[in-house]
Specification:
0% strand; mainly alpha; elongated; 154 residues
Length: 154
Amino acid sequence: MSEHTKGVPDLTWHWIITCFILFMVIVYNIICHFAESTIRITLAEEQRVLIRSIFYGISILLFPLVNLLRHILLKLNQTMPGNHSAERRYLTTITITLSLIGIIGLFGFIMFILGDGFNTLYIFSFLGVLGIFLHKPKQGEYQQIIEALKIQKL
C-alpha cells in the first residue's frame, strides 16, 4: 500500500466485478449490432410478448428484492461471527447483488436473439446499467463493515 492510500480500504476486486458485469452488458450490445443476422431466431410475436412481459416483471421485482438482499447482506457482514475479512464479506455482497442485477441486461440479449428489436435490447441494457450504478461498491458501506468487525473483536 502506498503512502497516499494508507488507511483507505482497498476495493479493487469489488470494482473489477462491477466493471466485468458492465462489460458483459456492452458485449451483448456489440454482439447484437455486429452479428444480428447470425444470432436471431424469429419467434412468433405472441410468444415474444409473453416472454418479454415475464422478463419485465422479473426486472421490476429484481430491483427492490436485490436492494433488500443487499441491505440484509450488509447487516450480516457487520454482525455474523467468523474469520472472514471485511473485504471478503463485502466482495461476496457485491458479487451476489451485481450478478442478480446483471441478469436484467441479459434479458435484452435473449429477447434480441428471439426476434425483438434494438429497442428492447436498449431498454433492458439501460435497466441493467442503472442497476449496476445503484449497486456499485460504496466506500461508506465497506467502512461500516470494517468498523463493526473491529468492535466485535474487542
